[in-house]
């Protein structure tokens, strides 16, 4: 089942563009919980591998969330392409970017991912690489008690029962509690003129880091190894 892999890592960065109104040190605890810390390290191999293409968005999701849709319903609650909300404690308005500025980055990144996907040969699988907080946060008030969630779309991007089954079995055999399209579902797709499949992997931050100190824990290296061994299922 040899496949070429594109590793899509949209939420790992703590960086804001030069000249932005915010930087990481301006973020409060609730906002910091939204960042998928270290997912670029967890999912992307240290050395380049044939058939594996990483695409890591370089800026913080609060400034621009490349995972959102155009006219995303979450725009109504300040969680669309550009994040904005009112801090309930201070009543401060938190506009992390203008929609126009965020959309410029969004469009450029989507175009680059589409270019990479189109240039790949053979069977293509996009792996949407995420982590989720084990603590109540602005996105999930009651975090799930699972370790890893595998998500997919019920459309032409669905990679098939065999692929999903292999991934679930891989993680369960290593002792992880796995959810399938629950509590998180779907996987990112991009508009390209070629056929490809997409699958999401969400890992619980409690497996690899302390969310208060933001330090990696002893579980980091084990999880990284277990994640990257998944790629071997596809002939890498």
Number of strands: 8
The biggest beta sheet is recorded as:
6 strands, mixed
Q: Please, how many helices?
A: 5
Cα-to-Cα separation, first versus last residue = 10 Å
Strand content: 15-25%
The outline comes out as globular
Estimated structural class: alpha/beta
Mean pLDDT figure: 95
Topology pattern, helix = H, strand = E: EHHEEEHEEHEEH
Low-confidence stretches: none
Question: What's the gyration radius in Å?
Answer: 17 Å
Helix content: 10-25%
Order of strands in the sheet with the most strands?
2-1-5-8-6-7
Structure characteristics:
single chain, 236 residues, alpha/beta, two-stranded antiparallel ribbon, 8 strands
Would you write up a description of this structure?
This protein has 236 residues and is an alpha/beta fold. It is built from five helices and eight strands. The strands form two sheets. The protein has a six-stranded mixed β-sheet with strand order 2-1-5-8-6-7, sandwiched between helices. Strands 3-4 form a two-stranded antiparallel sheet. Helix 4 links the parallel strand 6 and strand 7. The protein is globular. The N and C termini lie close together (10 Å). The model has no long low-confidence stretch (mean pLDDT 95).
What is the compact description of this entry?
With 236 residues, the chain is of the alpha/beta class. Helix content is 22%, strand content 17%.
